[in-house]
Amino acid sequence: KSANPQWREQFDFHYFSDRKDMLDIEVWRKDNRKHEELLGTCHVDITALPTKQTNCLELPLEKHPGSLLMLIAVAPCTGVSISDLCVCPLGDPSERQQISQRYCIKNSFRDIKDIGFLQVKVLKAVDLMAADFSGKSDPFCVLELGNDMLQTHTVYKNLNPEWNKVFTFPIKDIHDVLEVTVFDEDGDKPPDFLGKVAIPLLSV
Length: 204
Prior knowledge:
Elements: E1 22-30, E2 36-45, E3 54-60, E4 67-73, E5 81-84, H1 93-102, E6 116-124, E7 139-145, E8 148-151, E9 162-171, E10 177-186, E11 189-200
Antiparallel strand pairs: 1-2, 3-4, 5-9, 6-9, 7-8, 7-10, 10-11
């Protein structure tokens, strides 16, 4: 019941220069659990923002009254990566040695926020549900850890897709849960859910 809401929440998105350059924002109004109404949208061209500084933006909502006040900082992406299986970031013995040195006992309190990192190799899926009329699916895999989210490419018309990708996440909370979800790409429509698994970090 507010026309001037304050959320004061922070979200981290991993922006890679070869990906989509627009940040799309939507504002919704909830009447109850079932009814929602779109109050407006706005877009931010990430490539036009200065880097390594916090940008204060007042964004008018398109075709609707009101505006959003946001702080957006574009900074170099550290600790997060996507690579092919053949060039796995920890495949180099010297790199593994550097990592072991970084997280050895004597360096435990050098940076309290640097708990560690998680590397996930997403190889393939087997016997997925057919979501299309053709008896096939267009699956892709989404990995979420805390508020970090990365995803694979889509393998079209396949129930046994092979992605062979390596994902690296910084760990901010040892009690986080890695959520791996498989979706079926459905063009302009929201993707169809094909399955999910949750893996607590403490079980690894």
